Amino acid sequence: MHTLARAPARRSLPVLVLGGGLLLLAVCVASLMLGAGEVTPGQALAVLFGGGNEQARFVLAELRGPRTLMGLVTGMALGCAGALMQTLARNPLAEPGLLGISAGSGFAVTLALLLGASSVTLSVHVAQLGALAGCLLVLSAARLQGTGNDPVRLVLAGATLSSLLLALTSLVLLFDQRSADEIRFWIIGSVAGRDLATLMQVLPSLLLALLLMLLLARPLAALALGESVATGLGHHPGRVRLLTVLVVALLTGSATAVAGPVLFVGLVVPFAARALAGPDIRRSLWLSALLGPVMVIAADTVSRLLVAPAELPLGVLTALIGAPVLIAVVRGRRLPTL
């Protein structure tokens, strides 16, 4: 069994953060320059340097720019949420999508839309409440404190909850065909055509979540060493768990409100961050915040090019990336605990 004691060699965190930042900058530029439309990379590059024709400026300002921002926020939120959840559960398979947290958020928004909700603010709050409810349900069902001895229990509980919520969402679609297209907006997972008003509405929640996340990094690192160690260092394990669940709900709910349920980002990103920086949450969390947007923006960019002029849903690309990683974790590490 792999434990914290058998961590990979530590690398310089500033170097890793710098590398992650440069990679993020590169994928953001690629997202602005590449697309399925008629605007060429050269025309897009001219816009970035203050020139370009009117059509190119419109495409970058109204289409590619907003979806790049959406991908940035969505990836950061899901990457950090996955890192926090895996550390809390001491389980590398704990991911907001696999645990039903994203499904809970999406189902809550689906119900709100079916009942006539049209306010962006309402949809954001409903998404966060749905994520919180899904998080509490799956953790209660799996009895979080027992997952250290049975790491598959949490994943099975989450998969069951996800399946149930997806079935209920499909049932809701049968009752109101007129709302089906609007509801699919929330369940397909995409950053295309999203309203910047939604992004502005989630910013306060994201800032609060990021502040709490920074405060929780040290207590979570202590909790990973055991409850007795964390208590001896002056932390309160119960309070740390509760606040972490709240932060995960805020992050996942915000990401779902912006882009709908996007799976596997919270699995792949922390896995890569730990491989580079080691399992200490105080180090891997920084990389997760950078690698999350890298994965989402890169997948979104590729989704525009594979079947141009059409586009693949973002969730399809993240699943194609995440499924092999999930299999590799299960086969290569034999369901370890962190």
Task: Explain how this protein is built.
The structure is a single chain. The chain is mainly α. Helix content is 74%, strand content 0%. It contains 13 helices and no strands. Helix 1 packs parallel to helix 12. The relative contact order is 0.19.
Q: Which helices and strands, and how do they pair?
A:
Layout: H1 13-33, H2 41-48, H3 54-89, H4 101-114, H5 120-142, H6 151-175, H7 180-187, H8 196-223, H9 227-232, H10 237-259, H11 265-277, H12 281-305, H13 314-333
Globally, the shape reads globular
**SSE string, helices as H and strands as E:** HHHHHHHHHHHHH
Give helix % range: over 70%
- Give the low-confidence spans: 1-9
Average pLDDT, rounded to a whole number, is: 80
Instruction: Tell me the radius of gyration.
Output: 20 Å
Share of β-strand residues: under 5%
Largest sheet: none
Rounded to the nearest angstrom, the distance between the terminal CA atoms is: 9 Å
Oligomer: single chain
Q: Give me the secondary-structure category.
A: mainly alpha
**How many H/I helices?**
13
Tell how many strands the DSSP assignment holds: 0
Write a short abstract of this structure:
By secondary structure, this protein is an all-alpha fold. The chain has 13 helices and no strands. The model is unreliable at 1-9 (pLDDT under 50).
